[in-house]
Amino acid sequence: MSSQFESEEETVEIRFKVSSHHMKLASPVFDKMLNGPWSESTSPKPTSTPASTPEPASLGSSDGSVGETAKVSPVEKFPSSSAITTSPSWHFPTREVIAHAWNPDALLLVLNVIHGMNDEFPLVTSVEFLAEVAAVTDYYQCQRGMQLAAEVWRQTMYGLPLRYGKRCVLWLSIAWCFGWKDVFFRLAHFFIQHSEGLYLIKSNALPVIAILEILDAKRQECITRVITRLTELAEQLLDGRAGCGHRCSSMLLGSLLRERQDLSLLDPELPSPYTGYSFYEYTKKIASFRVMDWGYIGWEQSATAHNCTIMTLMEPLLKSIDADIKDFDISKAGFGYIGSNRQWTAHEASEPEPPRFSRNSRFFPLIHLLPPHLNLNIHKNPSTMKTISYVVDPDGDFVFVLTEPNCHQVIPKIQRDGLPTRANLPDSDFDNPPLTGRYTIFNDLYNKEATSSDTEDAEDIHEPCEVRMIVSSEHMCSTSTFMDLLVASVKSAGSYSPSPSCQPLYEMHTTGWDAMALAIVLDTIHGRDEGIPEFIGLGLLIHITAVAEFYECQASMHISTNLWKRDIMSKGPLPTDFCQKALLWLYFSWVFPGQKSLFPSMARCILRDFKGISQINLRMLPLQQVLGKLDAKRIELIGQIKEGLEDVRNTLSTETICAAANSYSCPPQTLGSLIQMMREDENDQDSPLISPFHMRSVSRVIKMVQLWPELIPFHCAHKRFDSLFISPNNGEIYPCSIKGRMAPVFDKVEQAIQSLCVADFKG
User: Fold this and answer.
1) Please, which pLDDT band fits residue 175 given cuts at 50, 70 and 90?
2) Could you tell me the CA-to-CA distances from 104 to 5, 341, 548, 693 in Å, in that order?
3) pTM of the predicted model, to two decimals?
4) Of 535, 702, 475, nearest in space to 609 by CA
5) Cα(634)–Cα(640) distance, rounded to whole angstroms?
6) Cβ(80)–Cβ(347) under 8 Å?
7) Which of 232, 351, 446, 563 is most enclosed, with most CB atoms within 10 A?
C-alpha cells in the first residue's frame, strides 16, 4: 500500500503490500475491482526497477501466505513516478489499486484489522481519527471485516454528546459508517434538535454529508412549523378565536407581540434555512416567554391567577413536533438501511483490459495513497476559509475580521395584498454598482456568473470566506465613543494575530456586513477619500448607512452620504406612496437626521398606506423602532376615525330632524346607511375595525367611508336625476351625509399626518 505526501521539498508516496484474499473477503469493492474487467485486476507490465528502490513491507511470505508476526506497515519514502513497476524480487505478480485522499494511518489500521494483525490495536483513540477510519471503512464497504473492532470502539469510546458541535457530527458519521443503528438514530434526533444549519459545517470528505442535508431539512421544517404557528396564533388572538375572552386574547396578543421582538427569527421574520438557530434553543425561548401577572376579580373573592399563556397554546404543537422528531426515520428519505449506500463505479483509470491471471492465481494488490484531506469544522475554521485582505492603513494595529460577508439582507419585503405590483422590486434592482479601483478585490464576493454546471468555480465562490481589513485604532477611536469602547474591550481581551512587521494586530470580529460598504466606511474614517466612488445606488447607500449607524460614525460619513443622496435623487423622483424605496429612504433620513424634509415626507407616504408591522418583512433593516412608532400612530389615527363613526352613529340615533334642511327623513336614512357599512365591516374577519386594526391602513379606512354607496339626502334628491347615490368623485359635499359629517375628522387626521417630524420618533 502506498501514500503520497506533497511537501515543499518533494512528493512522498507510501506503499502497502496486502493480501488480495483478505481484501476481497472483507470488501465487496475490492472483490469487484480485483475480479472485474478493470485495470486494477491486471498487473503492470514488468519494467526495470532501480536497485536502490526499497521493497514494500509485506503482510507475509512471498508465496502469499500470511505470517503470524507480519504487519501491514508503511515503507520508506519513494520518489514520485508516473508509473508503478513490478519489483524483480517479487515471486508473484502484483496488482495495483490507486487510492486518494485517505489518512495513511487510518487506512493502515483498517488493513491491519482486515488481515488480523491486532496486537497493536488501539482500544481508545481520538474521535477525529476514528472518523477517518470510519470513512475508509465506508468507502470500501468493509464493515464486515471491521465489525468487531467497531464494537470495541463503541463500548470504550462512545457517549451521547452533551451539546452540539464537532464531536456530535463526527459521531454521527462514525455511527452511519459502522452501521450502529440505535446510536445513529439517537444522534440524528439530537442533530435535528440542536444543529444550527449546514452553512456552519465545512466538510471536504465527510461520508454523511447527504444525510446531514436530510436532517437539516427536518430541522428547518420543525422551525418553520413553530414560526407558522406563532403567526397563526397572533392572528387568532387578534380576531378572538384564541383565548378564553376578549381581555385574555388582548393580554396574550400584547405579550406575544412584545416577545416576538426578542426572537430574531421573528422580528424580522427570517426565511429558511435559519442559519445559526437550533430548534431546541428556539423552543426554549418560547417556553421562557414571560407570563403576564393578571387575573379576574370577583365580587366576593380576591383576584385569581389566569391560566392561559402562550406556552399552553403552543404546547400541543411542540409535543407533536417532538414526537415527530423521535419517530423520524431516515429510510423514508431514500436511505434504506444504516450503513453505506455507496455503489461501486468504474475508476477513472484505463479502459478494461482482459485479465492475465486466472482467479486462482496468487497476487498482491499494491495500493497507492494520496495525502489525507478529511476536514470537519464547526463555525467555519478560518484555516479552511478563503481570505481577502484589504489594507486601509498599512501601519494599522487593528484588523477588522468580517466573516460571512454580504449576508445582511437589508431590502425589505412588503406583503402584496391590495398593493400595486411595484411594491416589491427584486433584490437585484438594489445591487451594488460595478466595483472599480481598489474595491475590485471584492469582485469574487459579488460574482453571480457561476452556475451549478461550473462545479469547481461555484464551490470556490460559495465557500466560506472572511475579509480582513487592517485599520488604525487611533482613527477608529476618534470617530465615535462606541468605536472607542470596542477598541478598548478588544485590547483588554488581548485578541490579536501576528503580522509581518512583528507588531501584534488586534482583531475585531464582525459578521454579515456588505464588504464594499464596510470598506467605504473605514476608508472615509481614515481620510482615504480618493478612490471612493462618487456615484452609488440606493442599495449600497443603505448598506453604508447600516454600518455607519451600528458603529455610530454618522458624523464622518455626513459629507459623502449627502453627495450620494443628491446624485440618486437627481436620477429619479422620490417615492410618493408606500413602497420599498420609501422604507429605505426613511431609514437613511433617520440615521442622518440632517435631511430635514426627507424624513417627514417618507413618513407621511408610508403612514397613509401602511397596514401594520405584520405587512413588512424588514429582514435585517434596523427600522423596528421607527416602524413601531409609525404603527402606533396608524392605530391612533384609525382609532380617531372609528371614534368619529361612533359619534356620528350616536348623534343620528338621537337626531330627529336634519339641521341642514329641516328634514325629518335624512337622519334615519343616513343612520341606516351607516349601520349597514359598519355591519359589513364587522363581517370582515381578515381585517376587522378592531385595534390594532390588522392589515388596515389610514387611507383604506378613509376610502371605506368615502366610497360607501350612500343615498343622496331627500331634500337634495330633486336636484339630480342621473343617480340616487352620492358620487365620491364629483366634489359635491352634503353636510348631513356620512361623508359630510366625517369631514372634520378626516381633516384632523390629515393634519396629524402632515405635522409628522423627526422629534415624534425620538425616545
Assistant:
1) confident
2) 10, 24, 51, 68
3) 0.50
4) 702
5) 10
6) no
7) 446
